[in-house]
Amino acid sequence: xxKRIRVCPKCFSSxxxxxxxxxxxxKVPPSxxxxxxxxxxxxxxxxxxxxxxxxxxxxxINAEPEPEKAGL
Length: 72
Known about the structure:
By secondary structure, the protein is α+β, with helices and mostly antiparallel strands. It has one domain. It contains one helix and five strands; from the N terminus they run βββββα. The strands form two sheets. The chain has a three-stranded antiparallel β-sheet, with no helix packed on it. A two-stranded antiparallel sheet has the order 1-5. A hairpin with a 7-residue loop joins strand 3 and strand 4 (42-43). The longest helix has 11 residues, at 51-61. The two termini are 26 Å apart.
């Protein structure tokens, strides 16, 4: 089983924190905030991705080419 991490849906950063409010635990989903400088996203929706998928998403965002697979 691979490791899954919660990431920001806007910038795919794993630097997030749960925000506390008075309604937490009262049938209200937890809220999270992205801590990456310049992002500022906050909300209840944060994706959980496998670590390999996060790396792929970051390459797409940064317009980097896919690494070539050796031996193919």
